[in-house]
């Protein structure tokens, strides 16, 4: 291991690992991971770029959950269940969403999932496979509806109901936007759900597994995953990436310079001020994030696609030269969602709409071969202090 990499060490029989668990492997998984070169993500044996470009949401969800791409009858079954469950949220859950103050839609997601758990899991949670997979499909189907309902309640004072006759991705995009997307728009949106579906032991998935390891129910574990994903160092990055790109676009227009030319100056100025360039860098992908290739193919087909790809490629060129840091998927989905007319606050919820498949799969994998996740700590605070009565404690 190079000097630049943090190392583990042994102290008094304990393994001291790097802060942030960098390069630490706490468990194994059969669901997804990154190949040793750091350039390809694997979904159950398939590369993510292959599945992201070609698989439907239903096919990819079946792969992640059950370990294989579905046969025709299996595809019909998972589609039927997801589409049916999407329309089966208890009305009282919607009533409860109406009672809270308007907030970022991620709050509606964690609140709504908890409400769903109160209806579906409060008194009779089980750990047999059929039960677990059924609730996984319920969450996969219903979480997007909760997010869309929260957004529409907060901004339009209404709820757009799901339409189980539509394919999952098309219906979800319709509920978010309030109008019927084209087939191309629906497919582009669907591909991002697949690209975000799983990614090894990322922060939100690990949070979900930690909660699962206590044998809490799946809904509580997913609520924890949503809380972890909300952070700007995890799922919130795509929101900030688009804010940055739109700021650059505005300044380029003020200067009368094409954005694909001005973006270099914009990035260099931010770097000189030691500001973070959102949409770049990744704990795992040090050379290239293969998910960006799939997103780029759909960006090209959507409005102003060629224009935006020139901007993104130029930004990548600058960051590669200046920092040797590749773009990540958040930079590309930021533009793709912008092309699809999706409101910025919904970017992270859409991440969760895909990642819910991975969260539920990891929950099941964890509880079916469980050991509670409870690391030891290294206490470095003071010792030997003695209690002092209040009247003597703060005398000067």
Would you kindly provide a written description of the structure presented here, covering whatever features stand out?
This protein has 2 domains: 45-234 and 346-367, Citrate Synthase, domain 1 (Orthogonal Bundle), CATH 1.10.580; 237-339, Cytochrome p450-Terp, domain 2, CATH 1.10.230. The radius of gyration is 23 Å and the shape is globular. The strands form 2 sheets. Strands 3-4-5 form a 3-stranded antiparallel β-sheet. A hairpin with a 6-residue loop joins strand 3 and strand 4 (41-43). It has helices spanning 48-54, 57-66, 72-86, 91-97, 105-120, 129-156, 168-177, 183-195, 203-213, 218-229, 237-255, 259-272, 291-301, 305-323, 329-339, 347-367, 390-393; strands at residues 9-11, 14-16, 32-34, 41-43, 46-47. It is built from 17 helices and 5 strands. The model has no long low-confidence stretch (mean pLDDT 92). By secondary structure, the chain is mostly helical. The longest helix is centred in the middle third of the chain and has 28 residues, at 129-156.
């Amino acid at each position: 291991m190079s000097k630049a990499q943090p190392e583990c060490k042994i102290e008094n029989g304990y393994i001291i690992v790097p802060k942030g668990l960098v390069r630490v492997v706490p468990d194994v998984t059969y669901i997804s991971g990154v190949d040793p070169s750091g350039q390809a993500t694997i979904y159950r044996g398939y590369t993510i770029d292959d599945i992201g470009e070609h698989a439907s949401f239903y096919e990819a969800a079946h792969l992640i959950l059950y370990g294989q791409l579905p046969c025709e009858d299996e595809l019909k079954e998972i589609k039927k269940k997801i589409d049916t469950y999407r329309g089966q949220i208890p009305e009282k859950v919607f009533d409860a969403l109406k009672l809270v103050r308007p907030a970022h839609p991620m709050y509606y997601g964690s609140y709504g999932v908890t409400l769903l758990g109160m209806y579906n899991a409060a008194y009779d949670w089980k750990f047999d496979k059929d039960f677990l997979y059924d609730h996984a499909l319920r969450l996969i189907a219903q979480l997007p509806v909760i997010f869309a309902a929260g957004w529409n309640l907060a901004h339009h004072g209404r709820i757009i109901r799901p339409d189980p006759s539509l394919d999952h991705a098309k219906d979800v995009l319709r509920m978010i936007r309030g109008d019927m997307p084209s087939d191309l728009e629906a497919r582009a949106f669907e591909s991002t759900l697949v690209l975000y579906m799983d990614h090894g032991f990322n922060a939100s998935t690990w949070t979900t597994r930690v909660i699962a390891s206590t044998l809490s129910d799946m809904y509580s574990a997913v609520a924890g995953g949503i809380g972890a994903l909300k952070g700007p160092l995890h799922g919130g990055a795509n929101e900030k990436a688009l804010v940055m790109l739109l700021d650059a676009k505005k300044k380029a227009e003020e200067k009368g310079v094409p954005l694909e030319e001005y973006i270099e100056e914009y990035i260099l100025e931010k770097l000189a001020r030691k500001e973070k360039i959102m949409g770049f860098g990744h704990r795992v992908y040090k050379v290239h994030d293969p998910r960006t290739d799939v997103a780029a193919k759909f960006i090209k087909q959507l409005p102003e696609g060629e224009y935006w790809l020139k901007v993104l490629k130029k930004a990548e060129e600058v960051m590669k030269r200046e920092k040797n840091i590749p773009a990540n998927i958040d930079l590309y989905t930021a533009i793709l969602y912008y092309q699809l007319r999706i409101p910025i606050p919904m970017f992270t919820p859409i991440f969760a709409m895909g990642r819910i498949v991975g969260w539920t799969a990891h929950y099941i994998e964890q509880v079916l071969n469980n050991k509670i996740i409870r690391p030891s700590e290294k206490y470095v605070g003071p010792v030997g202090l003695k209690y002092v009565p209040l009247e003597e404690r703060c005398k000067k």
